[in-house]
Specification:
Elements lengths: L3 E5 L3 E3 L7 E3 L2 E3 L1 H9 L5 E4 L6 H14 L7 E5 L2 H20 L2 H10 L7 H17 L5 E4 H11 L11 E2 L3 H15 L6 H14 L1 H13 L1 H8 L5 H10 L15 H14 L4 H15 L4 H11 L13 H11 L3 H22 L2 H29 L1 E2 L1 H13 L1 H14 L2 E4 L7 H12 L9 E6 L10
Parallel strand pairs: 1-3, 2-5, 5-11, 6-7, 6-10, 8-9, 10-11
Antiparallel strand pairs: 1-5, 3-4
Length: 472
Amino acid sequence: MPQGSMAMNAPSISMRSALRAYEVDGETVDAQRFTEAACDPRRSVVVEACAGSGKTWLLVARMLRLLLTGTAPSELLAITFTRKAAQEMRERLMELLRELALKPDAEVRALLLERGVAETDLPSLLPLARGLYERVLSSPHSLAIDTFHSWFARLLQIAPLASGVPHGYTLTEASGELQRETYSRFMQDLNDAVHKDTRNALEKLYQLAGDWNARKLLDAFVSKRAEWWAANQGEDGAPLAWLRALCGADAEIDARLTLWDDARLVVRIQAIASLLGQGTATNQKRANAIEIALSAGAAIEHFDALCHQLFDGNGEARKNLKTKDLTKALDHHFGIDGGAVFDDEFGLIGDMLKQLQRRSVEPLVLDLNHALFKVGAAYLERYQAVKAERRVFDFADLEWQAYRLLTNDQHAAYLHSRLDARYKHILLDEFQDTNPLQWSVVRAWLDAYGDDGGQPSVFIVGDPKQSIYRFR
């Protein structure tokens, strides 16, 4: 049985297995109430669950509850991230159904109660539960427990002419070999004068990231090309414009130099220096160095000199010995316990300088991405050409074509109707690993319903702590 927390109708469950705590919509509940809510087939549910908390158990329990409502096996769509996980989910469901078919009534009742079935419903559901194993085995359409990629492949089969995959192409998993060949041929291409701009951008990328990291960035660019295509959507330069807007003013000027424009912060630093000047010789030396750096004006070396006085190379605040005279001055300036208040202020100002340091990399980030986008687009073009020569496509192509089909007005309605006719319930496992494009495919399908009550139920399980992307 799982541990966790949940939101329902996009309600949500958050699982904290270490504490064995259960929550439903922020309210602490017992394990049975949690399972009843999570497996309630009338609701769409989001479950937050950590590793080892029983997510697969919960997914299988949810599928059982849906089958007990009369849902046909073919009306369930469960998506996870590896073939191994999909196979495990299928095996555990079939093993549970087999137990329900063969075990004594008392044990079957216990299995159903454990999965949230109300005791008052047992008399009517017991015969149904016993027949589910045979029903699933004899169903003309098997349970759809897929990876995203296998589901995308079946989507393309629904609309082969609109899929964007040329006839005769085969799916390949040899992306590493393809990328090695692409890199070799791409580097040869750059000897041609026509590719001068791309060559210059690559040299910039090497300068900013190094040879090895530049190669890794290009490989990552190719692997994430579906997101790149989606981000562009016909608007040349859209990702760079978005990045420039995200960086804001920091993209145009080194944030460290803005310190001298922040009058309030300058006054606070001056106050720190003035107080330190009433302490030991070391304090006075530090105060003098701070005042010199401030008065010298906006320059990186002056900013660095300030930082050196406030924190060490590990980012730890400098210690300031408090003499009797300094303690008296601090109490006079800050009030009771002025020494502690001073330490807080000293550390806070150091944190503000560190924040400016972090922001100062924005121009570098923009330059690096500008070079990467330029080189990556050319590298990607060569990669696609290599695949075309071999008449193959890969998993990222699958994602892109599925996204294109379900978001393109010309084809989406037909595909939606085919999906609507089959699937009534969607279950998504390991949702924290869902990339934005994969989620966009699912959302495009669900959003097409609007306020239509016929929208499939959705059951999502994920672990925000393991999320590569923001847990949605």
